[in-house]
Amino acid sequence: MSTMTDAAGLPAAPRWMLPGRLASLDGHGPQRRTLRDWLVDLVLFGGAVWLWAAKDPAPHRLLEDLPGWTRMADLSLGAVGCLALWSRRRYPLALAWYLVPLLAVAPSATGAAIVAVLTVAVHRDWPLAALIAGLHLLVAVPLGLFLPPHGESGAQNAAWLVVMFTVPLSWGMAARARRELSLGARREVERQRFEHALRVADAERAERERIAREMHDVLAHRISLLTMHAGALSYRTAQAETGEGPPLKAAEIKEAVDVIHGNAHLALDELGEVLEVLRTADTGGRIGASSPSRPSLAGIAGLVREARAAGQQVVFEPGDTCEGREPHPRVQRTAYRVVQEGLTNARKHAPHAQVTVRVGGAPGAGLDITVVNPLPAEPRSSAIPGAGAGLAGLAERLSLDGGTLEHGPCDGTFRLAAHLPWP
Questions:
Q1: Higher-confidence residue: 311 or 414?
Q2: What is the pTM of this model?
């Protein structure tokens, strides 16, 4: 059997447990499932039988002229009404409708009618329960008023009948309200559990995205440097083999190998730093702020030197960043990543073009970072692989820091511009 879910994706309660719809999918009520259900049904059946058996055997004076079989018919129909109570859970509404005409011809079915009113009040909305109770009273009260038992007046008997029907009606509506309140509390608990699971899943997804951004920023930059050095070494070797260029000297080979080896070690070191930061609880973005190896504004000059050493043409224009009052370490780290991403993209798509890096700002005005390079004459398929999500991750990083990022062609150049808050 499939499990129903509500709009929030939570498992929905059975239809017979829902407010206003305490019926199962086939239109019937719930079945007996526990010993308590059987005991309740047995007590109610016993009460109805007791009222049936307690009927005054002496006929009212208005009924003395009726044949004797009418009294036996009354008792027989009343017994049928009592036996019908065993179907009250499955067919509560049908039973109540059935007992209205039965009560009109068999007053001994009063006990069964009272139980039917109680059942409808428990399993249906109060307007329908009140209608059912009113119909039964509309039949029972006139009979009790004009045909009272011996020793009672018609008014007293009618008043007792009103009490006998209204008390179960009120009791049933109170029981239904308590069930709905309990059901609402259970559903609220389930909803809170579901929302907590969503929050946990969102936190895990955000952490995975954070790790992916850090990995991309670190590895893409270093691997692009390695690719450039390895490509240059391969090109020079191929030129020497075909006689189109001089053979590589041992010192040149050693220098290229040392650069590749050094950048590989730096990639591993930076990767270890990223993992260390990610494993540490973030306390306001100041983790590792005292470590000189953390990405910062001062480290941008190192990025430029590494790019130049790899053969990239870089013009660095550092502005006045008010060294006595530096931006927040997290802002510095983001600025570092902006320059790193800009240099990496330039190496991928315009490897021989000159790149201009500008960094400047002031407290209150914010920190501005710009990386500009000419667009290549023809679109170039980069030899350096990548996921193509670096700028998207960078935009998300700046958004989390309260900054903005703009990138795209502008007057024959590709411009990457970022603005970060600097209180």
A1: 414
A2: 0.45
